[in-house]
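In the laboratory, one determines a bound structure by crystallizing the protein with its ligand and collecting diffraction data. In a computational setting the workflow is compressed into a single prediction: the sequence and the ligand go in, and a structural description comes out. We illustrate the idea with zinc ion.
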Amino acid sequence: MNWLTNFVRPKIQALVSSQKDVPENLWVKCPECEGMLFHRDLDDNEKVCYHCNFHLAMPVLERFKNLFDDGKFKRVAVPKVNHDPLKFKDQKRYAERLKASQAKTKEEDAIIVASGQIGGCETVIAAFNFAFMGGSMGMAVGEGVVTAAKEAVKRKAALIVIPSSGGARMQEGALSLMQMPRTIIAVEKVKEQGLPYIVLLANPTTGGVSASFAMVGDIHIAEPKAMIGFAGKRVIEETIREKLPEGFQTAEYLLDHGMVDMVLARQKHNEVIGSMLAILMGKPSPAEKGKKKKNSGTETDAIANKDVAASKVAGYTASAVKKASDVNVSTPANTAELKALKKVATK
Ligand SMILES: [Zn+2]
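The predicted complex, in structure-token form:
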């Protein structure tokens, strides 16, 4: 017995505990190509797969650091809502699910709002946190979009929403569906003020989110290979009893079919969105700032920029704005700016 307790048991315990000490997430499997990714390399590459360029989910605060100028931003508080008014329960109580997600993500709900500058332009961003119950949209998320829109109007800032969501949160029933018209009205208020509203579609954007505020942006940008659609591919195939084309509901497919204006790699978000905002808000872009001071063309540039912004508000897509620059609506400086933007985007 002594031999068992004094020798065998400690050996077994040592074996088990040493296995526990090995971190579980040193390697991450790419959901697209199934390639193994070392976590540190993945972090250095903005959470983009270095085998196939798939854009993996990015924690919201890291995304903000990547998007805002110099990684500087301030969080905007989202008012608390009455969670779980229906006292919903499936296999588990909804209240318990909420608590578990709050403990896991250290966030109140699936949306985070922050303000700062992009390309020197005041910007408010509302970003979905997919790690929190699949980024599903309930009352708290609706409140987040409304708060971001109000903040944008107050600050005369641009509004960017970054959806990454499985759709409406079924545990809140009709109350979650009510967030669809609610968020639409919120972003309309931003547009009424002539402020840009940009949607940056991240993987995946589906269900009630894609059927509301996510499809009414002035400009739609998507991350490469992001899945964007309403119902899933299999559900549609079963309903219409037809095979759907290859690449259906991907960002690239939607770009080819005119549903999104640009597919943009994560590494270029700050640069390209910054230039876009500068054009739309009639400010010299960071790249042009130095050059413009030399001549006195700033005023004409501002007017030309306003023309482009006006055409944008009238419903042109980003590509139409590019075409407008070819037809020479703008001054030479502005044309160069647009060309540079186009070049960066198509790289
Ligand atoms: Zn991959």
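The CA atoms of residues 180 and 212 lie 5 Å apart. Keep in mind that any predicted model is a hypothesis to be tested, not a measurement.
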